[in-house]
Write a structure and sequence with these properties.
alpha/beta, eight-stranded mixed sheet, about 50% helix, elongated
Length: about 325
């Protein structure tokens, strides 16, 4: 398959290991459903529907998948239960392909702007700052000059954590004191990055969601101020979601997509959960490309999301 052209053996092993809990959970349930059955009938499909919903694929996306399988059974006639995994793999891969924009191949590819500005949003605790640090590491490793902006001035710990990541990765972090205007930090970061001819700028933002109007106003102000330095910034607004929270991640995606124009998703903590199906549901429901998935604590455990590799690992 095409994904093996740039999907290394190490990445594949990390992906397989990271999705192991989800895979074991889904397959053990499917095995029970098809036990003693010879063909895919209404009872099998009803049970499969329940399995997908409880694996956090989501109700609407699950119904789409079941309808696709029903159409296929109707068209092809008799279908044995031993074919079910292959059918699932095919239909989910097809669904992800339809609902996602073109993927990023890897971190070394040429970016559409210089500096390429990524504004990162998400609630506290989802792994937002860690994801920024890992992104900085991957871009830096690919030979790109990276600047980080600590615009989450609401929590002192957020700035401290980003500074630690900056030191660890070896990239500059632009910051101000706690309580400073986040837009001012973003302005300083873009100004410094532009002067230094940087390739990538990643701006951290506050993870508050208690008041959607305030959040919307704050994010809008940050974007407006950034555009005084770089007119088309930010080039990407990335929402970070914790995959282990399942349906909670859906709700956060709903709230943030209402508050700002989210352009991409990073879904973290998939290695510690059996809820990996959430990637399929969120990708389908929000029509926003999943760019990155987090599969462990290591600095290199953030992967560019590859649809084919993901489905192959989950259902292969």
């Amino acid at each position: 398959m095409a994904f093996f052209n740039f999907f290394s053996k190490e990445k594949k092993e990390t992906l397989d290991k990271g999705l192991e809990k989800t895979k074991q959970s889904v397959f053990s349930k499917i095995a029970r459903v098809v036990a003693g059955k010879t063909k895919v009938d209404d009872e099998v499909l009803d049970n499969l529907e329940e399995i997908l919903i409880t694996s956090d694929v989501g109700v609407e996306t699950t119904l789409k998948i079941i309808q696709r399988i029903e159409r296929r059974v109707s068209k092809e006639g008799y279908m044995g239960t031993n074919e079910l995994n292959t059918i699932l793999k095919d239909e989910i891969a097809s669904l992800l392909t339809e609902n996602n924009a073109a993927e990023v191949a890897d971190f070394s590819e040429e970016l559409p702007a210089k500096p390429y500005v990524i504004m990162v949003v998400g609630v506290n605790g989802v792994g937002k700052t860690t994801t920024i640090g890992k992104l900085a590491k991957q871009y830096s490793k690919a030979g790109k000059k990276v600047y980080l902006g600590a615009a989450d001035t609401f929590r002192a710990a957020a700035t401290e954590q980003l500074v630690i990541w900056g030191e660890r990765v070896g990239v500059p972090v632009i910051k101000q004191q706690q309580g400073a205007d986040p837009a001012s930090v973003a302005f300083d970061t873009l100004s410094a990055a532009k002067a230094a001819n940087a390739d990538v700028v990643i701006i951290d933002t506050a993870g508050r969601l208690h008041n959607k109007i305030n959040l919307m106003n704050e994010l809008t102000k940050i974007k407006t101020v950034m555009q005084k330095v770089i007119p088309d910034a930010p080039h990407d607004v990335m929402l970070v979601l914790d995959g282990s929270t399942g349906q909670n991640a859906f709700e956060q995606a709903k709230q943030f997509t209402k508050a700002t124009e989210v352009k991409s998703l990073a879904i973290t903590k998939l290695d510690g959960t059996a809820k990996g199906g959430v990637v399929i549901g969120i990708s389908d429901q929000f029509k926003i490309p999943v760019r990155y998935i987090g599969l462990g604590e290591g600095i290199d455990d953030l992967q560019v999301f590859n649809k084919e590799a993901f489905v192959e690992s989950l259902f292969g």
